[in-house]
Amino acid sequence: MIDLGVELSNSTLITSKTDLQGRIVYCNKDFIQYSGFSEQEVFGKPHNIVRHKDMPRAVFKTLWKYIKNGEEVFAFVKNKTKNGQHYWVLANVTPSLDSNNNTIGYYSVRRKPNPKAIEKIIPVYASMINAEKTSLEASESILNTILTEKNLPYNEFIFSMQENLI
Predict the structure, then answer these.
(1) Are 161 and 120 in contact (CB under 8 A)?
(2) CB 55 within 8 A of CB 140
(3) Cys bridge to 90: 10, 32, 47, 113, which one at CB 3.0-4.6 A?
(4) Which residue has the higher pLDDT, 19 or 1?
(5) Rounded to an integer, what distance in angstroms lies between the CA atom of residue 103 and that of residue 112?
(6) pTM recorded for the entire structure
């Protein structure tokens, strides 16, 4: 049986904002509740304070490629809690813009993912992590092969999994 970790409620919306360097400048009560960190422990700290070791670096490389191009991105993310547990989220990350359309930071909303999608993504991520022992490119290749086989762009692949279509 797959360990899906701490399950988010259906109404959970974990939100946070970071500056351009990825340091947390805002988080809501759901972020505090699920991460187990206090506001004082996260403000000004890198958002990767909740990054779980089971997350492939190639997923974050894809995420950063989208948001640096001014596009939103969706991803299944396994986060760690302060006490060593974990929780899965469906993350939506977008650039935050000023009145002149300059990116001034990033905004993320995370919600409960489809458990069937997580069951499917866990072995993909495990393969990617294993490939990263060789190189980041090898990990990216696994993801790109899946996207090519499914004939889907990254965000549509994530949506299809969330909706349990693939």
Answers:
(1) yes
(2) no
(3) 113
(4) 19
(5) 27
(6) 0.94
